[in-house]
Amino acid sequence: MRIVLTVNGQPVNVEVDETTPLLDVLRNHLGLKGTRYGCGLEQCGTCMVLIDGEPCYACAREAGTVTGRSVTTVEGLGTPDKPHPLQRAFLEEQAGQCGYCLSGILLSAKALLDRNPNPSRAEIVAALDRHLCRCGTYTRIIAAVQRAARMGAHA
Amino acid sequence: MSDTLPLSIINNRRMDRWLAFQPADRSVRLAVGKVEIGQGVLIALSQIAAEELDVDVGRIDILSGDTDDAPDEGSTSSSQSIEVSGRSVRLVSAELRARILGRLAQRLNCAPDDLSIEDGVFLQHGNPTGHDYWSFSAPEDFAADVTGTATPKPPAQYRVVGQPVPRRDLIAKVTGAAFIHDMVRPDMLHARVLRQPSRQATLTALNEAAVRKAARGDIRIVRVGDFVAFVGADETAVQRAAVAAPAHATWAGVRPLRPEQQEAAWFRDQPADDRHFGDPPASAEGEIVSQTYSRPFVAHAAIAPSCGLAEYRDGHLSVWSHTQGVYPLRNSLADILGLRRDQVTVRHAQGAGCYGHNGADDAALDAAIVAMQMPDHCIRVQWRREEEFGFEPVSTAHMTRLRAVLGADGRPVDWTAEIWAGSHVQRPVFGGHMLAHEALPNRPGAPKANDPSEANGGGGTRNAFPLYDVPAKRVIHHLALETPVRTSSLRGLGALPNVYALECFMDELAERAGVDPVAYRLSFLSDPRARRLIETVAERCGWAARGPSATGKGLGLAWSRYKNKAAYACVAVELDVDREVTLRRVWCAADAGLVINPDGARNQLDGGIVHAASMTLKEQVTFGPDGIASLDWDAYPIMRFSEVPEIDTVIIPNPDQPTLGMGECTFGPTAAAIGNAVAHALGVRIRDMPLTRERIAAALVG
Q1: How far does CA B483 lie from the centroid of its chain?
Q2: How far apart are CA B248 and CA B603, in angstroms?
Q3: Phi and psi at residue B128, to the nearest 5°
Q4: CA distance A125 to A112
Q5: Is A52 within a domain?
Q6: CA distance B82 to B651
Q7: Among A85, A56, A75, which Cα is nearest to A10's?
């Protein structure tokens, strides 16, 4: 079927089986590789995107359910030349080791700062707790979100 | 001097294997064999080259892990990258600089000491010469062998080394495509593999029609022996095929696993290669104390399932892999596929952190097997989550029994560590097999039990010898001839279980002697670097004000020198135990000699603490009749944001001492500090990891 949706502010339409995971649509049909496969089970958070501003796993989300919705991926935050304040904060804190978990975490952090520009540490932890980081970079990631909040990343 | 050259240079003598000047953008090509696995090695090696060449670090264009264009430096493992590759890059860069400046001095008829370099530009008495690396270097500078005779800069002159230079790979990772998983090649097809349930299992039937129906899209089924792959342009369809396939496959000769095999104690009754190291059997007299500690099988559990790309065109196989060693992988692929080594190129592409030998190489072989059957396509194999958990090599379960003969002062006069474990390293070049090789018609014989030599830090014996002043010490290692599942290297090998045993035993001996655990350690520890770390951490964590035991609140401390020759770390942990353990604060001090990039080092130290804490408190690979049963993040939980303590890490500056590998040094001390803190909180010792709610309940019932 034809799925019509908005991705990173641009209208797109793709011809796919409605049960195709949103993750596959983003990665393979739209070439947005920043949304990553980690488990396919909604357990690790590497595939996190925003759907109408809310963090959602893309790996098991059927494409048919996002018709007419607005999806934001990490490519929609900023680019290497013009990074979003959140992305800048992660770079300034060097908040990554292998970095595979970061793109999903950035989107959960974006949703958090959009609704709560000055979150406490506990609120950051609660907002990110659906994400796993096997390298154990958690404390730097928390510091990066705090730095982004100070930079006014919600603006 | 060649007998003191690092192995990396001995194996790659020509200067042009390492360095080149690229005039087009005035950059410096540095080629290395070590690869980025999230540990920040590429920026550290770039800093070393920039320092010795006197160019801005931004000019270093690093190429790593490429069997055509980069040197062979074996595997990226065992915290050896800075010690070995870093030393090589330093010697190579210093020598190239000296050689070029020597030629320039001749040309200008001046002394080499009259010349200096500023960001690659050559100056004479501080004035421009009109020459720089890019205009003046000549083929003769690169054609010669590296001799190791140039003198690198003294650390006091360092401007780039020792600075927290940011990594360059993170920008791509926080903005979009960055990993091997994200590569797109011409004529690319996606593939998934139907895994053999166990070694020696043979496929007796596969209902291909049912699999095709489940795929709901065009797929090709590639079969070579008992290896089966589903291949197609539509990744969603091949994924569906792979998910459905096991239910439509019938296997013979499956070797079921039994639950008792998942415990370390199982190894006690298995046939083993019994190895003895150290002093002859004890004759000392005194009170004998003995305790046994264990850790179960644990997984690397990379956050990204493994991925490999391969294409076979015009008789040449090109492979992209997140392997730790492109040359060993190339050699294995050539041997298995019947190709000459010069017919195979392996290039490194970044994956998720691996922490050792996981499924990376196996996914590359999967892709290569399919590529050989489907020439002129790029085959991209993506493992599934359950495949990563179910089929990657895991770290062996490991049991350590310690036995001390105590002197009149309560300190040990004789020490025996007895260890039961499977192989801690079984890379293909090291007695092990690549996964899909077991399914091919030319399948290998049984894997061979193996472990690194003592000179390389040992495997099961790693950190088994205590560094305390004990008159007689020995290690007895029962290296199991067979393991129920494939086992191979995971961060620190035997260091974590052995340091857990050693440093928990220290607290137990101190308690027996009625002495404070820190004072007890310091009473027979001569190494000044170790003493300084312990004293530093004890002060920072407020050890002197440590409360009584069995209150539910615990403070524990432990230390080790990784491999007994690499970096030192001391860790203290403050925690609460209710029904389960809640970590509150961690203090860490490390001494790694000259630190190239302190920010990267701190990242590794802190990450190692979290990783080790996760392993100590939560992790165990479980077995069921169909194989490994812990196949997702619910069955194999790891530490999360909400469980991470505050971490206070200090690096003791020691720039005049040689660099010591530090990526694994916090691993053992963290585990043991948690063990000691839990014992302090409960008043009861738990000697078997992981320290789960069930183990705590059982310990309290006693």
Answers
A1: 21
A2: 46
A3: -60, 140
A4: 10
A5: yes
A6: 17
A7: A75
Going by the DSSP 8-state scheme, the letter that residue B217 receives in this structure is: S
Instruction: Find where tokens 């396509």 sit.
Output: B377
Cα three-residue angle B219-B224-B229, rounded to 5 degrees: 30
Q: Is B39 on the interface with A (CB under 8 A)?
A: yes
Which among A16, A37, A102 is the nearest to B173, CB-wise?
Answer: A102
Assess whether B226 and B318 both reside in one domain: yes
Chain B nearest-CA distance from A75, in A, is 6
**Could you give the CA distance from residue B529 to residue B543 in angstroms, rounded to a whole number?**
19
What residue numbers bound the domain in which B518 lies? 398-701
On whether both B165 and B122 belong to a single domain, the answer is: yes
Q: Name the residue range of residue A46's domain.
A: 2-74
Chain A contact for B383, CB < 8 A?
A: no
A60 and A24 in a common domain: yes
Q: What total number of domains does chain A contain?
A: 2
Among candidates B181, B608, B609 on the partner chain, residue whose Cβ is nearest the Cβ of A36 = B181
Asked if B353's CB is within 8 angstroms of A100's CB, the reply is yes
Q: What is the 3-state secondary structure (H, E, C) of A74-117?
A: HHHCCCCCCCCHHHHHHHHCCCCCCCCCHHHHHHHHHHHHHHCC
C-beta atoms surrounding B208 within 10 Å:
17
| Average confidence (pLDDT) over B676-681 | 98
- Determine, yes or no, domain membership for B8: yes
CA-based nearest residue in chain B for residue A40: B385
Residues counted in chain B: 702
At A89 the pLDDT is 98
Whether B441 and B503 share a structural domain: yes
CB-closest option in B181, B239, B642 to A129:
B642
Claim to verify: residue A41 and residue A10 sit in the same structural domain: yes
Give the sign of the dihedral formed by CA B334, CA B337, CA B338, CA B340. Answer: negative
Domain shared by B250 and B109, yes or no: no
What percent of chain A has a predicted confidence (pLDDT) above 90? 97
Judge whether A104 lies within some domain: yes
**pLDDT > 70: percent of chain B:** 100
Query: How many contacts, defined by CB atoms under 8 Å, are there between A and B?
Result: 178
SS3 A117: coil
- The complex's ipTM works out to 0.98
Indicate the average pLDDT of chain B: 96
Q: Does B270 map to a domain?
A: no
Residues B29, A147: Cα–Cα separation, whole Å: 35
Q: Tens digit of pLDDT for each residue in B123-152? A: 999 999 999 999 999 999 999 899 999 999
Band the pLDDT of B81: cuts 50, 70, 90.
Answer: confident
Residues 6+ apart with CB under 8 A from B111: B105
Best of A98, A105, A128 to substitute, by most chain B Cβ atoms within 10 angstroms, is A98
Q: Quick check: bond before B166 cis, omega within 30?
A: no
Q: Which of A29, A54, A74 is the endpoint of a domain? A: A74
- CATH number, domain at B248? 3.30.365.10
Cβ of B305 and A90 within 8 Å? no
Residues A12 and A50 in one domain: yes
Q: How far apart are CA B691 and CA A72, in angstroms?
A: 40
Mark which of B324, B348, B382 sits at the end of a domain: B382
Is B540's pLDDT higher than 80? yes
- What is the C-alpha separation between B254 and B680, in angstroms, rounded? 46
For residues B21 and B96, membership in a common domain is answered with yes
Tell me the nearest-neighbour CA distance from A136 into chain B, angstroms.
4
* Number of structural domains chain B divides into: 3
Residues A94 and A66 both lie in one domain: no
A65 shares contact with chain B (CB less than 8 Å):
no
Do residues B376 and B313 make contact, with C-beta atoms less than 8 angstroms apart?
yes
Could you tell me if B351 lies within 8 Å of chain A, comparing CB atoms? yes
* Reported confidence tier of residue B82, pLDDT bands at 50, 70, 90: confident
Is B177–A41 a contact, with Cβ atoms under 8 angstroms apart? no
Q: Return the number of other C-beta atoms located less than 10 Å from residue B569's C-beta.
A: 32
